[in-house]
Amino acid sequence: MLREMGDRFKGFREKHKDLMPSQQVEMELLSESTPDSSFLILIVSSCAIATFGLLANSTAVIIGAMIIAPLMLPIRGLAFGALQGNPILVKRGVVSILVGTLLAMAMACCLGWLVGIRSFGSEVWARSEPTLLDLGVAIVAGGISGYAKVQPKISGSLAGTAIAVALMPPICVIGLGLSQANWELGWGATLLYVTNLLGIMLSCMLAFLLTGYASLRHARRPLIWATISTAILLLPLSISFGRLVRQAQFEATLRQILLNRTITFQQLDLMSTNINWQMTPPEVRLNVRAREPITPKQVGLLEDFVQREMGRSFKLIFVVGQVEEVRRDTPQFEPPSTQSY
Fold this sequence. Notes:
Helix 14 (296-310) links the parallel strand 2 and strand 3 (315-322). The chain is built from 14 helices and 3 strands. Residues 337-341 have low confidence and may be disordered. The radius of gyration is 26 Å and the shape is elongated. The protein has helices spanning 2-15, 22-32, 37-56, 59-68, 72-84, 87-115, 122-125, 132-150, 158-164, 168-179, 183-210, 216-232, 234-261, 296-310; strands at residues 268-276, 283-290, 315-322. A 3-stranded mixed beta sheet has the order 1-2-3, covered by helices on one side.
């Protein structure tokens, strides 16, 4: 069986003769995995952009930090070195990952402490509850990154891959959690970072193996260790995924109850709902359009009704946009000197 798999790998390699030579790949990965001044500058720059983007709750700014993606390079070097049995490449990859991670974490912690924002936005909390979906993204994106390294024709896809599987933002969230001694936030972000790291490394190994840069006999041990390490994450990620599914079901049920079983929502247009599950009780922000004002008494009655129907309390927050009907015969009050058409 092993011989058949090896023959398939050789056949795959022969079909892709335009791949980079193994020695050239190894030399480039050695250079990319070195924690030199350029690498440290990229770490600091990416960390600063990501941290400020997280504090500002700006998705666009965070994406800018993802594109830099300095930590993707030593992870690929570590994966290739493990398959090739190259201790120098493995050592450089490990050192670069540790140095980059600790430096970014410390910097994000200092920035969070200096800025002093006590309440984080959705971009921060979104990186505190990783699920199996995040592991799937890391595995697919890491495989593309590994193949892009050995296939010059698609090397331009690396930026998109870096955006898909973000490494720097979770590290910055760990630092922000430490700045406020928020251990729950720090643990969730740590789990996301480790998930991304192991997922990328495992899929890079598979990409290098499938493209013929290592034999299955030599790659078996590091692949087993990488697979076991990644499999350990399945339990906490499965728990988070189950929680995500339950929350989605709760949100759908809550929306159905409000729309179909309340008089208030027969007179409103519900545009969108958003639930902040980090609050106790969870905050439900309802964007609605209404012809008549919504009173605090109505909100209180709706909260009591929702609690009876769903068995748990929610805090309802209405964001109301007024609806006004305008026709050609609607009276208008204009200054005498103004003429409009």
